[in-house]
Design a protein that fits this description.
Layout lengths: L2 H35 L2 H26 L14 H30 L6 H21 L6 H29 L5 H28 L9 H11 L4 E9 L5 E9 L5 H17 L4 E8 L12
Parallel strand pairs: 2-3
Antiparallel strand pairs: 1-2
C-alpha cells in the first residue's frame, strides 16, 4: 500500500470518528432538551440520532479494522471489513427510513399541530452539526464512507426541511408541509442508499466491477501481445477500489522462457492501465490439452 493511500485511509477513519462524536454529542443534547421541554417529537428524533451514532461507531470500528495487513487468517487483508460497515449502515438507514415513512404516511391524511418556533431553533442547530459532519466525509473513496455520508446527509436534509417548514408555519398554518417534505426526503434517501447497497452486495458476491468489460480486456491482450488466445478470465474487486484478475494465456509451443516473462510483464502493464493491478496469469501451450472449449478460441 502506498504512503498516499495509507494517509487517505487514516483520514477516512479520523473523519468517521469525528462524525461519531459530533453526532453522539448532539443526540445527548437532544435527549436533555426533550426531557426539559417534555417534547415527544424531540425525544423521538433524539432516539433516531442515537441509532445513527451507534451505526457510526460500528463504521468507525470496521473502517479502522479494515486497514490491518494480510495475515494467515485473511490472506487478502481486512479491507472488506470496511464493506461490512457499509452493509450494516445501509440496512440501518433503510430500516430507519421505512419506519419514518410508516409514521409520515398517516400524518399526510391527519396533519398534526407543530411548534414552529421550537422547530426553527432546533433545525438551525441540527443543520450546523450535521453540515459539519457531511463536509468532513465529503468525497469519500470507500463505500463505507459514502454510506456514512448519506446517513448524515439524511439528517441534514431532514433538518433543512424542518427549517423551511418552520419558517412557513410561523406565518401560515399549513401542517401538511411537515409530513410531505419528510416523505420526499425519505424517498430520495432510499433511492440513493439502495443503489449503494446493490454495489456493496455485488462486491461481496464477487461481481465484475461496472467499469470493466472482460471481453474487451481479452481482445486488448490478444491484439497487443503475442498471446494466441485468452480464456478463463475472472475479475473481481476487494472492496470497490482494488481490482483483481486471473486469466489463462495460450501461447505457441516453441515460446522461450524470456518471452513468457516479457509476455506476463506486457499483460500486467496493459491491465494496470485498465485499473487492475493485482494480476495472476496462467500460461498454456497451443497444443496442450484442455477441458474448456474456448481454450483455442
Amino acid at each position: 500500500m502506498s504512503e498516499h493511500h495509507h494517509e487517505h485511509d487514516h483520514s477516512a477513519v479520523e473523519n468517521i470518528k469525528f462524525a461519531f462524536f459530533l453526532n453522539l454529542s448532539f443526540s445527548i443534547i437532544e435527549i436533555i432538551g426533550g426531557l426539559l421541554t417534555n417534547s415527544m417529537a424531540i425525544l423521538s428524533d433524539a432516539l433516531h440520532d442515537l441509532g445513527d451514532s451507534i451505526s457510526l461507531a460500528v463504521s468507525w470500528y470496521l473502517e479502522n479494522f479494515s486497514q490491518k495487513k494480510a495475515d494467515d487468517d485473511f490472506s487478502y487483508g481486512y479491507a472488506r471489513f470496511s464493506l461490512l460497515g457499509a452493509l450494516i449502515n445501509s440496512i440501518v438507514l433503510i430500516l430507519g427510513s421505512f419506519f419514518i415513512l410508516s409514521e409520515v404516511v398517516p400524518r399526510l391524511f391527519n396533519p398534526q399541530t407543530v411548534h414552529p418556533e421550537g422547530m426553527l431553533f432546533l433545525s438551525i442547530f441540527g443543520i450546523i452539526i450535521n453540515g459539519i459532519s457531511v463536509l468532513k466525509l465529503r468525497g469519500g473513496s470507500s463505500l463505507n464512507k459514502e454510506v456514512v455520508s448519506w446517513h448524515l446527509m439524511e439528517d441534514l436534509l431532514g433538518w433543512t426541511a424542518i427549517f423551511i417548514v418552520s419558517i412557513i408555519l410561523i406565518f401560515k398554518s399549513v401542517p401538511i408541509l411537515d409530513p410531505l417534505l419528510s416523505l420526499l426526503i425519505n424517498i430520495y434517501i432510499l433511492y440513493n442508499v439502495i443503489s449503494k447497497l446493490k454495489r456493496v452486495l455485488a462486491i461481496f458476491l464477487q461481481g465484475v466491477p461496472d467499469d470493466i468489460n472482460i471481453e474487451n480486456l481479452q481482445h486488448k491482450i490478444v491484439e497487443q501481445s503475442n498471446a494466441l488466445a485468452v480464456h478463463h478470465t475472472h475479475v473481481w474487486t476487494l472492496e470497490g477500489e482494488k481490482n483483481f484478475l486471473s486469466t489463462h494465456l495460450i501461447v505457441k509451443d516453441q515460446i522461450k522462457r524470456d518471452d513468457i516473462i516479457e509476455l506476463k510483464t506486457k499483460v500486467k502493464k496493459l491491465l494496470a492501465e485498465e485499473g487492475i493491478d493485482h494480476v495472476t496469469v496462467e500460461i498454456e501451450y497451443e497444443n496442450e490439452e484442455c477441458e474448456s472449449e474456448d481454450c483455442r478460441a
